[in-house]
Design brief:
This protein is of the alpha+beta class and 380 residues long. It has 2 domains: 220 residues, no CATH class; 99 residues, Pdz3 Domain. It is built from 12 helices and 12 strands. β9 and β10 form a beta hairpin. The two termini are 36 Å apart.
Amino acid sequence: MVHLPQPGLPFTLLTFLAVLGVLVFIHEWGHYFAGRLFKVRIETFSIGFGRELFGWTDKRGCRWKISALPFGGYVKFYGDSNAASMPSAEAIASMTPEERAGAFPLKPLWQRAIIVAAGPAINFLFAILIFAGFFMTIGQQFTPARVEAVMAGSPAEKAGFMAGDLITRINGDAVSRFEDVAHEVAIYAGRTLVFEVERTGRPVTLTVVPEQVTDQDEFGNAYQRGRIGLQGSMPELVRRGPVEAFYYAGQATVDLVKMMASTLGEIVTGDRSVKELGGPVKIAQYSAQSAALGVLSLISFMALVSLNLGFVNLLPVPMLDGGHLFLYAIEAVRGRPVSQRVQEWAFLAGFALVISLMLFLTWNDLGSYGIWDRLSGALS
C-alpha cells in the first residue's frame, strides 16, 4: 500500500490553529450567547490565554481579543472576579442597581447553569449540524446488518456465525446497519460481545471475542482495532430528508459520546492503556492530515473534535464547565453555595489536574513518535 506524504510542519501548525480557533470560538460563543440572553454584562471574549496580541472593544464594552496561548479561550462576565465566581460583599455593596442586574454571580442559579452548559451544548449542536448536512447532501452510508460471508478460521466462524444471519442487537443495544456492527467490534478488541441474530426466522444468540489487529491509515499511521471476520454487502449512500437527517445525526452523536464515556471509563479502570489518549500534538497531526485529504474530511474531523471538546468540558472537574455545574448542583441541594474558600481550593486543584494532564498527553504524544527513545539513544 502506497502511503500519502505527511504534511509539513508549517501546514500542520496553521491547520491546527485554525481548527482549534474555530472550535474554541464556537464553544465560547455558546457561553456568550446564553449570557446575552439573560442580560449579563460581558467584559471579555478571548480566543487563547495570556497576553493580548490584538483585539477591539464593541459598543457594549466587550473586549474581543486574540491572545498569545492558543490552547483554549474564555468569556469573562461582569462580577466573575475569582475562582468562585463571586465578588466580595464590599464589591456587591458598591454596585449600582444597573451593575447588579448585569452581574453574573447575582443571576438565579438556573440561569448561571444554562450559561455554563451552553458552551458544551453548542459543541454538540455543531457536530449534529455537520452530520445532518452530510446526510442530506452526500448521504449516510447504510449497509443492512446481514452477514454476507464469514472468514475461515475467524472468531466469527468459531462463534457459529453463518452467511445470511441478520444481526439485531449487540450487548443488548439495537443494531440497524452493518456499520454499527463494525464500529462496536472495532472498539472492543478482547472483550466479550453478545450478538443477537435472526437466522431463518428464529432468534439465535452468539458470543464472540474480537481479535486485535493492526491496520494503517492513508498516511501510514498504525492503529489497533477489533475484528471478528464478518463481511457485509456493498455499502450504499442514502440521502436523508431534513427530519431524518437530524434524527440520525443526533443518534450518531449520542453513540459517539457513549463510546467516549465508555473508553474513558475503561482507561480509568485500567482495561485500556492511557496511550490511547491523544493530546495537542496528535490533534495537530490529525488536523493537518484531514485537511490534506480535502475539505469534507477536515469538516468531519472538526465535528469529532467538537464532540470531544463538549464531552471533556462536561466532566465534573473544577475549572471545567462540568466542575461549575457540579458545584451548582451542590448549591441547589444545600440551598446555598459552597464556601468561597472551598471553591477556590477546588478550582486550584482542578487547574493543577488539567495542566498535569495536558503535560502528560503531550509527553505521551511525543513518545508515540519515538522522540524519547531517540533522545535516550543519542545520550547513551
